[in-house]
UniProtKB/TrEMBL annotation:
Pfam families xrefs: Fer4_11
GO molecular function: 4 iron, 4 sulfur cluster binding; metal ion binding
Top-rank lineage group of the source organism: Bacteria
Keyword terms: 4Fe-4S, Iron, Iron-sulfur, Metal-binding, Repeat
Protein name per UniProt: Formate dehydrogenase, beta subunit, putative
InterPro entries recorded: 4Fe4S_Fe-S-bd (IPR017896), FDH_Electron_Transfer_Unit (IPR051555), Formate_DH_Fe-S_su (IPR014603)
GO CC aspect terms: cell envelope
Localization: Cell envelope
Keyword Iron appears in the UniProt entry: yes
Gene Ontology BP, a term: formate oxidation
SUPFAM superfamilies according to UniProt: 4Fe-4S ferredoxins
PANTHER family the record matches: FORMATE DEHYDROGENASE, NITRATE-INDUCIBLE, IRON-SULFUR SUBUNIT
Length: 243
């Protein structure tokens, strides 16, 4: 499987949020109406103007407080469940770029059902503009197509964000895990064989974010029957059969 991939090394992330701001700037997204939730994470979750979000998690390890940072975004799945569900209702509304593997929503996705699309994503990433299309990270396809790296990678000052040809990124990620293993036995890559955005963590993934991985079992869990029952047919089944 060729194309491009990200490697996000959480051990090098300082939560400066430069990637989050660079994403907003490049996509010309507005600021988000937010509130204080007692965490430095801001805004609290993805929204129609936030495609990249540095999540903060405070945990206790052996009696000591630790902070885990997780620069969350669309994983650009190799076989994207959201594409199946959206195109079950609106054909030809999602582009999976052949050269990079980027999964990009078009304006046509405005007609797709909100709940079905949200439920289809193993990482709960897609959001919808008010009466507009679904939105999320585009892999900065406009930059990458012109020989540039994504804005979030360009701005990262620590080397936490990396991007390049998939084979090279996978090799880089695996090498980094091997180097960290002696100090961090739980060092691991998350869903590396299923997605193009590969996170490295050094503890239980759920300590970083409840949806850091699609599943604790191998492979992405795809909602059964979504692609064939999406849209009106599935709503009829819900009404008649309660399923």
């Amino acid at each position: 499987m060729a194309g491009k991939s990200f490697f996000i090394d959480t051990t090098r992330c300082t939560a400066c949020r430069g990637c989050q701001i660079a994403c907003k700037n490049w996509n010309r997204n507005e600021g988000s109406l937010t509130k204080n939730t007692g965490s430095h994470q801001n805004p609290p979750d993805f929204d129609a103007n936030t495609f990249k979000l540095v999540r903060f998690s405070e945990v206790e390890n052996e009696g000591k407080v630790a902070w885990y940072f997780f620069a969350d975004q669309c994983r650009h799945c190799l076989v994207p469940p959201c594409k199946d569900v959206i195109e079950g209702t609106v054909p030809d509304s999602v582009i999976q770029d052949e050269a990079t593997g980027a999964v990009v929503y078009t304006e046509k996705t405005a007609e797709a059902p909100l709940d079905d699309v949200r439920e289809s994503c193993p990482y709960d990433v897609p959001r919808k503009k008010d009466k507009g299309p679904f939105v999320k990270c585009t892999m900065c396809i406009d930059r990458v197509s012109n020989g540039l790296v994504p804005a979030c990678v360009k701005i990262c000052p620590t080397g936490a964000m990396n991007f390049g040809d998939r084979d090279e990124i996978l090799a880089m990620a695996k090498d980094r895990v091997e180097k960290l293993k002696p100090r961090y036995p739980k060092a691991q890559l998350l869903d590396a064989n299923e997605v193009r955005v590969i996170f490295l963590v050094v503890d239980d993934p759920r300590k970083y974010h409840k949806k850091a991985v699609a599943s604790l079992s191998p492979g992405i869990q795809r909602p059964a029957g979504k692609s064939t029952l999406a849209g009106p047919a599935r709503r009829v089944l819900k009404t008649v059969l309660g399923v």
